[in-house]
Design a protein that fits this description.
Blueprint: H1 11-20, H2 28-36, H3 40-44, E1 51-52, E2 55-56, H4 62-102, H5 116-133, H6 138-146, H7 153-156, H8 162-171, H9 174-184, H10 190-208, H11 226-234, H12 239-242, H13 246-256, H14 260-276, H15 291-295
Antiparallel strand pairs: 1-2
Length: 303
Amino acid sequence: MSQEVKPFKTIEEQLSILRERGLIIDDEGLAKKFLSNLNYYRLSAYTLTLRKDNIFYNNVYFSDVMQIYNFDMELRAALMYLLESIEVSMRAYIGYFHGKTYGALGYYDSCSFEDEERYNKFTNDYLKAIAEYGDKEVFVQHHQDVYDGKFPIWVLVELLTLGTLSRLFKNLPKEIRDEICKQNYGKINDDYIGNWLQGCTILRNICAHRGRLYNRQIPFSLRMGKKDKRFFLEHGISINKASKQLFAYLIVIKKMIPNEQVWNTFVERLCNLITKYPFVRLDYYGFTEDWKELLGIIYATEE
């Protein structure tokens, strides 16, 4: 039997409900302003770890909830910075190595890829991208006017989303995937990189659409190497659970970042967030006690 939809509540009524459930409103003016700019339903998801059913644990403050929410919001922005680096570098790798093997317009031929069905999907994707950016990007209009709409592969990739790049990488001929991995990822093979790109695409979409990362599993399981699996097993953490939490994604992302300075900048932002929002528990993102060691992080204040 379906239930009736809950009735509308004013900001004041929302605060009354939170009080009745045991949440301490330590600054009513700030709380009202916060709720005026944030959907109550959205905020409630960030309180799940602070209550049992609908009753908050003792000594939980509205400002604590604000810390969790703001930490999550700023963390998403920092992650987008990391994921942009992966997206931009993958554009370069595919454009360079496919162009080197098959030429500027080799992608017109389905034989330059492994699977024809995937190739047809890629063709639809890039034609839509050209149409979408035709009147927005100068370089697109330039190629339309000067080169009769022909885009070299190293130009075309600049129009592709991370999702399209992920699918395109998996459909590259094996020898090109191997060369990309050998040149840029060391001993990590293309099966792992393909899986990680797909995971990064899902994470990026969550971040881009302001989805919650706190206290949730990402709906995609990352492939993990023996060393990383052993780490989680030694900590008594299920591999299935770990592979869907943000911490595992950071382990993987670190291996894919082409510029160490980009990673170091992210690390600095992450550490600043941890200092800024001390109430936030990192274990709800899948972090272990010795997470800094695994990610190669040393605080600036440490010797």
